[in-house]
Amino acid sequence: MLASYLHKNKIEVGCDEAGRGCLAGPVVAAAVILPKNFKQPLLNDSKQLNEKKRILLSTEIKENAIAYAIGIVDHKEIDKINILNASILAMHRALDQIKNPFDSILVDGNQFKKYNEIEYHCIIKGDGKYLSIAAASVLAKTYRDDLMKKLHLEHPQYQWENNKGYPTKSHRVVIKKIGISQYHRKSFKLLPEQLSLNI
Known about the structure:
Layout: E1 12-18, E2 27-33, H1 51-64, E3 67-73, H2 75-81, H3 83-96, E4 104-108, E5 119-123, H4 131-154, H5 160-163, H6 169-178
Parallel strand pairs: 1-4, 4-5
Antiparallel strand pairs: 1-2, 2-3
Helix pairs in contact: 1-4, 2-3
């Protein structure tokens, strides 16, 4: 069972992102404030859960959360500001939409930028340690997966319905064969050896 909070007497919001390592599509972040008494033994880092469990947990999180929000940074912005800055910006955009007051931010990972003078704590593998970060992980992942399924309808040849834009072998084979789409991140190493791409 993950920890309910880092500080018992503070209103904490958990933040995490999904899609950082993808070759295509946006990076998506979520911010979640959970009640201190929220319990869910199945809730964990979204990467440790199958899709069916993530979808079920996503519904439960939304029904029980005090507040939650999604932030998105698209592929064009990623190419301009790099994926680390884009991931942090996505978290800030999610936090911008949280209307409930909070005084502490729990962030998955080891890097963040100050948000409105509110204290923050970077926690490596935090999505496997704190419920609020795990909840943010699940919401970000399920939202982004749904987005990639919609983009798949535009470009079924890349099989985003299955790979969600991650650098699978089959994804890279298609890139090598037909080039990239308008949703690919041009600043990323799209092929192991940078062959000629239709950019």
